[in-house]
Amino acid sequence: MGVGRISTNYAFIRSLRNISDTFVRLDGLRERMNTGKDINRPSDNPTGMQQALTLGSSIRANEQYQKNINSALGRLNLTSTTLTQVEDILIELADIATTAASEITSSAERGGQVKEVELLLEQIVHLANTRHQNKYIFGGTNTVSGARPLSQPFNIQYDSNGYISGVVQNSRGIDTLVYTTILQGVRDSMNISGSVAFQPNGAQQNGDIFDMLVNFRRNLQNNDITALQRTEQNIQNALGQVLQQNTIVGAKINRVEISYDTLNVVNLNETDEKSLVEDSDYAKLLIEYSTAEVMLNASLSATSTLLQNSLINFI
């Protein structure tokens, strides 16, 4: 009699433990189904949690690199567009120079071209002071700095007659390269030197596009055919100078776009890998949950039977 009661009590306790374990298992399955994650805390899978954290950190870093690249692309694309506009103006000026240098062009006609050249020169200076996100694209690290004298990268000087006499650079410098990180351990500049594009040897020196155009306008005013005959070649040299810088910008754009695409591939692979580590298989969870419910019902039924037998034995 005593042995029977002990056996029944042991079976009853074991059955209750099974019920408790099944409830815990059902709670865990419900949490995984609600979160969609197999790993919700380090104790669920310490190794898997570490892998997921490492992959998540890498994915976030890559996303930041992509943000850096998007910012760089915005500036570089605007730079390329601006340089292309300068090229178009120089081509237009070359056509004017060809006409002006012709001996059949009258002095009156050259006088009419003066204002046209002046306006196109002003337009080039305006383009050279283009801004992106409140920063001058040809101004190095200089930002929009209010109304201080010579605050822009390129500042127009006028003569007593109101014509442009020269263009002066910002005295704080315009050639600092702005770098950004585009890949782990890889930094690239997102701009080009303003001087190299427009005044490679300084103001009023060889290669100064603005000074060359100021002289073009003066030669028109002076009806200097000999000087005008050299202007077209000078403009072609300036066009080559701008084209070279635009080519450099294009290469930068290609480089950062390739980096962006590389990061996309890496992020897709790491996201898939992270998902395999921590995400739940919902169909599998449903089967496990159904199985656990069946086990729970069976345990409850067995416990109920044991409880009835235990009461009968007690009586």
Structure overview:
With 315 residues, the protein is mainly α. It has two domains: 2-36 and 280-314; 64-271, f41 fragment of flagellin, N-terminal domain (Up-down Bundle), CATH 1.20.1330. Helix content is 69%, strand content 8%. It has seven helices and six strands; from the N terminus they run αααββββββαααα. The protein has helices at 2-35, 46-101, 107-128, 194-198, 209-222, 225-278, 282-314; strands at residues 131-132, 135-136, 154-158, 164-169, 179-183, 186-189. The chain has a two-stranded antiparallel ribbon. The protein has a two-stranded antiparallel sheet with strand order 3-4. Strands 5-6 form a two-stranded antiparallel sheet. Strand 3 and strand 4 form a beta hairpin. Helix 1 (2-35) runs antiparallel to helix 7, helix 2 (46-101) packs antiparallel against helix 3 (107-128) and helix 2 runs antiparallel to helix 6 (225-278). The longest helix is centred in the first third of the chain and has 56 residues, at 46-101. It starts with a helix and ends with a helix. The relative contact order is 0.16. The mean pLDDT is 82.
